[in-house]
């Protein structure tokens, strides 16, 4: 009945499904364990009419015209240019730490420090904090220590349970020291929030004749891997020879037989305040205090600035343990975990026409745009 089965209805699954149906004429079934589409990008209005991101703030940004044009088929955009400040001992400074932040921290001395930074790295450079810390020059060391101590250390300890030096350098490298006065969090050519929300975007993405959707459906209830001699996959008890695109947690699909892959999870605590605004920016990072990492105020992201009340969410990170009410959000990439993932991948590779895609299935820290690009590529390859 179906040519392809897609497990998971986030960007990875939904884009692949649409492409296989529309461009390849396949009959595609998308299943998702949750009762809604959109994966972790799912948004909805809360009881106060504010469009909230149920699984934390998702801000689309990309340098890929291909990805931007593709998604623009399914949504218009609210031109939101994301800015973040760090709450540091009662003061707010721009993050990524940039030349404006430098001036706020160092006052008159900043001019000379700025010259030195630019002479060393060039104007507009994006310098990972761990790289800045390697420099011998006293002034550069001083700036690096300030940024490390006040922006990265505590936030990263909360987010990952480890210091920036103990985790994959690519993670802190996502938020470099920026040698410019651009206060935006991202410098990508295209950025914004879907004008009517992510869920509305997904509704249009999935609204195609060849795409069927089954929500509240666990992969393991309909798919089974059989390995008697040759490995094969069964769909509802019958051998299935079409493609299966899997975007869920791979360890759990294989019953964690080699042990659990470690992930970080988040506890989101929403609150509504009966006042127009709660804070100065869409996101405020708590980089030296508090148990939560950041507070997001959704009005800034949705542009609903005329509403009387405001909804915020605080994020409390913790280690994912696999309990049914927990959600794995971030892979924890290091040598040991990547090797464990490799064992699961080997099992997956033995199944013909079984494709892994996305943050969970590939055990990688992807942004939305990277996922969309990979989904387009995969559908083309298939
Ligand atoms: N980070 C930090 N302080 C900040 C912002 C980021 O230490 O104020 C570090 C932290 O380790 C975080 C990583 O940089 O996990 C990546 O940040 P990003 O904002 O990209 O995280 P995401 O929004 O994907 O959770």
Beta-strand percent range: 25-35%
N- to C-terminal distance: 18 Å
What is the residue-mean pLDDT, rounded to a whole number?
Answer: 97
Q: Tell me the major beta sheet.
A: 7 strands, mixed
Helix amount = 25-40%
| Regions with little confidence, pLDDT below 50 for 5+ residues | none
- DSSP summary: helix tally: 13
What binds here, in terms of ligands, is: uridine-5'-diphosphate
Roughly how many Å is the radius of gyration? 22 Å
Strand elements, count: 22
Task: State the shape.
Answer: globular
Strand order of the largest sheet: 8-7-18-19-20-17-21
What structural class do helix, strand and pairing data support? alpha+beta
Summarize the structure.
With 382 residues, the protein is an alpha+beta fold. The chain is 32% helix and 25% strand. The longest helix has 23 residues.
What would you say this structure looks like, in words?
It contains 13 helices and 22 strands. The protein has a 7-stranded mixed β-sheet. It has a 5-stranded parallel β-sheet with strand order 12-2-1-16-22, covered by helices on one side. It has helices at 11-24, 65-72, 99-106, 110-121, 129-132, 138-160, 169-172, 198-206, 219-222, 250-253, 298-302, 335-349, 368-381, and strands at 4-7, 28-32, 43-45, 51-53, 60-62, 77-78, 84-88, 91-95, 126-127, 177-178, 190-194, 211-215, 223-228, 230-235, 238-239, 243-246, 263-273, 283-286, 294-297, 310-319, 330-331, 354-356. With 382 residues, it is an alpha+beta fold. Helix content is 32%, strand content 25%. Strand 13 and strand 14 form a beta hairpin. It is globular and about 75 Å long. The two termini are 18 Å apart. Bound molecules: uridine-5'-diphosphate. Uridine-5'-diphosphate (UDP) binds at residues 86, 95, 151-152, 155-156, 159-160, 171-172, 174-175, 285, 287.
């Amino acid at each position: 009945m179906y040519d392809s089965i897609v497990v998971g209805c986030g960007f990875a699954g939904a884009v692949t499904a649409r492409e296989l149906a529309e461009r390849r004429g396949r009959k595609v079934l998308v299943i998702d364990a949750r009762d809604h589409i959109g994966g972790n990008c799912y948004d909805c209005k809360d009881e106060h009419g504010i469009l909230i991101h149920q699984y934390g703030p998702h801000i689309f940004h990309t340098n890929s015209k291909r990805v931007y044009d593709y998604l623009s088929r399914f949504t218009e955009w609210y031109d939101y240019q994301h800015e973040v400040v760090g709450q540091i001992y009662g003061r707010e400074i721009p993050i990524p730490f940039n030349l404006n932040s430098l001036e706020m921290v160092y006052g008159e001395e900043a001019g000379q420090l700025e010259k030195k930074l630019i002479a060393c790295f060039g104007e507009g450079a994006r310098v990972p904090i761990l790289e800045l810390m390697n420099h011998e020059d006293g002034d550069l060391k001083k700036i690096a220590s300030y940024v490390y101590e006040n922006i990265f250390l505590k936030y990263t300890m909360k987010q990952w349970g480890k210091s920036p030096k103990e985790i994959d350098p690519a993670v802190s490298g996502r938020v470099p020291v920026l040698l410019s006065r651009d206060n935006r969090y991202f410098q990508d050519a295209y950025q914004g929030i879907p004008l009517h929300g992510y869920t509305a975007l997904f509704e249009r993405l999935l609204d195609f004749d060849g795409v069927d959707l089954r929500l509240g459906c666990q992969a393991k209830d309909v798919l089974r891997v059989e390995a008697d001699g040759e490995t094969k996959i069964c769909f509802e008890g019958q051998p299935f020879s079409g493609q299966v695109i899997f975007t869920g947690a791979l360890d759990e699909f294989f019953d964690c037989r080699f042990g659990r892959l470690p992930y970080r999870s988040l506890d989101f605590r929403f609150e509504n305040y009966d006042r127009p605004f709660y804070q100065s920016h869409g996101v405020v990072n708590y980089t030296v205090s508090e148990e939560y990492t950041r507070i997001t105020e959704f009005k800034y992201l949705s542009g609903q600035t005329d509403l009387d009340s405001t909804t915020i969410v605080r994020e409390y990170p913790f280690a994912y343990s696999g309990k049914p009410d927990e959600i794995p959000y971030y892979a924890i990439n290091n040598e040991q975990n990547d090797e464990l993932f490799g064992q699961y991948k080997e099992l997956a590779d033995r199944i013909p026409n079984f494709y892994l895609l996305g943050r969970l299935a590939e055990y990688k820290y992807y942004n939305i745009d990277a996922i969309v690009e990979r989904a387009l590529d995969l559908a083309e390859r298939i």
